[in-house]
């Protein structure tokens, strides 16, 4: 499930939009809400949504100003603007800020669905899950299949979509109605590596992406890539890459202002 941050100062509208998203798509979930731009930016300091949907006209900070600040933090963050104002100037400025889509209130369901489908395709390609076949009846469930190759492909897609979740072999095996030992054998036979190795590698790749594409603090990168202990993450990262997380981020050309990883890396 892809994560959405929903920013809207009117609670009734925010609740309605959340319900419309829930009814319109099975591959997105509203995991964060904010009533204004300041709350949204505070949320973004420790969480990384896949998509932000925001109104333009809000108290304290207008949506476009907030979007500009958010894009400075996360240049690749996908943004959808919703507004009751149809003036061309707002649409023009939204395009300048790299907004993916601009929807007018009241939002038509088919317009939202069309925008979300395009965004899903972009995110699928970004995370390498374009071949995923998720169950149409249960969001997040993996389809059980007699085709071993397809089954393993779906398991791998599930891992990438739930990288910060419970990816224990027993948990994933239960979703495909297989014995954990049997799934482990199938996975090793099909991919040449153990399931646990694949999960570790996928989590490390996600951590590297977050380090180079966000300004998240290192302990937040560890958490969002599925590592329960920041110190253990930093130890493993150094062993695998030969660099600390901070050194890797600097070498890749990102020098964020909100990184206090040095204290953790020194073992404090």
Report on the architecture of this protein.
- The longest helix is centred in the middle third of the chain and has 19 residues, at 109-127.
- This protein has helices spanning 11-24, 37-44, 63-73, 88-96, 109-127, 148-161, 169-175, 180-191, 195-213, 218-224, 230-241, 245-251, 261-265, and strands spanning 2-7, 28-34, 51-55, 78-83, 101-104.
- It starts with a strand and ends with a helix.
- It is built from 13 helices and 5 strands.
- The protein is an alpha/beta fold.
- It has a 5-stranded parallel sheet, sandwiched between helices.
- The radius of gyration is 20 Å and the shape is globular.
- α2 (37-44) packs parallel to α3 and α10 (218-224) crosses α11 (230-241).
- Mean pLDDT is 84; it is low at 131-140 and 254-268.
Keywords, separated by commas or semicolons:
globular; 5 strands; alpha/beta; 13 helices; single chain; disordered C terminus; 5-stranded parallel beta sheet; 268 residues
Detail the topology: elements first, then pairings:
Elements: E1 2-7, H1 11-24, E2 28-34, H2 37-44, E3 51-55, H3 63-73, E4 78-83, H4 88-96, E5 101-104, H5 109-127, H6 148-161, H7 169-175, H8 180-191, H9 195-213, H10 218-224, H11 230-241, H12 245-251, H13 261-265
Parallel strand pairs: 1-2, 1-3, 3-4, 4-5
């Amino acid at each position: 499930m892809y994560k959405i941050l929903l920013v809207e100062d009117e609670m009734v509208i925010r609740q309605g939009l959340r319900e419309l998203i829930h009814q319109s798509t099975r591959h997105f979930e509203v995991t964060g809400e904010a009533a204004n731009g300041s709350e949204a930016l505070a949320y973004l300091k420790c969480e990384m949504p896949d998509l932000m949907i925001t109104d333009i006209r809000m108290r304290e900070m207008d949506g476009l100003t907030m979007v500009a600040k958010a894009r400075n933090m996360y240049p690749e963050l996908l943004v959808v603007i919703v507004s009751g104002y149809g003036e061309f100037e707002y649409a023009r400025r939204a395009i300048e800020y790299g907004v993916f889509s601009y929807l007018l209130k009241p939002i038509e369901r088919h317009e939202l669905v069309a925008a979300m489908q395009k965004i899903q395709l972009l995110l699928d390609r970004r995370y390498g899950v374009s071949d995923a076949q998720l169950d149409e009846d249960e969001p997040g469930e993996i389809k059980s299949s007699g085709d071993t190759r397809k089954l393993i492909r779906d398991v791998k897609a599930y891992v990438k979509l739930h990288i910060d979740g419970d990816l224990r072999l027993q948990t994933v095996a239960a979703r495909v109605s297989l014995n954990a030992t049997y799934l482990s054998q199938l996975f090793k036979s099909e991919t040449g590596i153990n399931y646990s190795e694949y999960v570790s590698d996928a989590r490390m790749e996600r951590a590297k992406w977050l380090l180079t594409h966000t300004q998240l603090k290192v302990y937040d990168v560890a958490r969002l890539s599925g590592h329960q202990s920041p110190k253990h993450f930093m130890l493993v990262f150094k062993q695998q890459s030969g660099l600390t997380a901070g050194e890797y981020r600097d070498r890749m050309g990102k020098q964020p202002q909100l990184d206090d990883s040095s204290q953790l890396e020194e073992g404090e």
